[in-house]
Amino acid sequence: MDIEILLLLIRRHESSPSPKDLALYSIALNSLCRDPRQFYGLDLISNINHQETLIDLEFAVSSLAVCTSGTHVRKRQIRRLLDITEQNKQTSVDHRNRNLHHYLVYPTKKLGKLQKENGSFGDLKSSAFAIQALQSTDPGARHWNKTSAINYVKMQQNDDGSFGDDDIVYTTIMVLLALGPQGLVSIKDINCQNEKTKNWSSNPLTLYSSSMPNKMTDNLNYNNNNNNNNVNKTQNLQLETKVTNLTNLNKIEINPDDIVTVSYTLWVGSNVTEIYNINITTENNDTFYNVMQMAAQKDNHFSFQSTEWPNGHYVHTLAGYKEEPMSYHYWLLYKLPMPPDLTLPPPNQFVAPVGVDELLYLLTQVDVTFMY
């Protein structure tokens, strides 16, 4: 495999390697406790990031490779993944399965409903991916027929033992992963004890946005009875990084005047059952976190709790509502060029820090497959 990868990279002037091929090789290296960022002095992950593909399927695989390598995933890439999974048009089963691997919160029932009468989930490769996904999230097979799916895959074996009619090696690998005890989602759980083999940080591999912190130090609670010198701190908590609550903003630069007014709105619920708005006047170039503190001191509805990390704050509770990862409820922060419209919820490209004027927090149920 090393020779194949090196030949692929050496011949890049003749034929540039596709992000999909590089991603699959990177995942394979990662599963062998090899660092794809240090492959004979070459950085495969950097190559993947520099060749962002327009094909949704390949983009999802590339993002999986970046994530499992422990490399920082850009916020723009996360937004694109969210936009892909929330498209109204029907997308392939392959594509949705790969997004499961990124977020591990895939709505299993919806995937199970895609199973056909013959046990498949479309073609052979799609079925292999679906089996891996469902074995990870629904091992008890409550929402799918596992026996039927396995039998379908086994019946597709060729006389020579391989699987598939085209791209035989790739299809066979995916089928073996589906039939074996561990699939792609197990890569992140591999315990690489030999530092000579896998030379990178021992921190857990997580997918996070560029505004998300990398280490938590304490938990902060703010309401109108607290000020900056009266902060309750609980040390040494542990919090799994999620692609949510993008609260660590850069400096707000609304206009060049010395004094600015920030319009700050809270929406609660996917159907928006509660709305709160407040205007905060502050100095230009102030942080939005400071704006949140001032709003909390003026109005109880804007009281919040956050976790402090070395490079910012992770807001997990607002207006008494705490995020609920198990039911996919998260706070999302948007920066909008105009006041938010209830009839037209903002798209993901306005998730902070994009935009300039209006700031909206929305507590919503995130469905990583379809429009929520």
Automatic annotation (TrEMBL):
Any single GO CC term annotated in Swiss-Prot or TrEMBL for this entry: extracellular space
GO terms (BP aspect): cobalamin transport
Domain of life of the source: Eukaryota
Protein name: Uncharacterized protein
Signal sequence interval, chain numbering: none
GO molecular function: cobalamin binding
InterPro entries xrefs: Cobalamin_Transport, Terpenoid_cyclase/PrenylTrfase
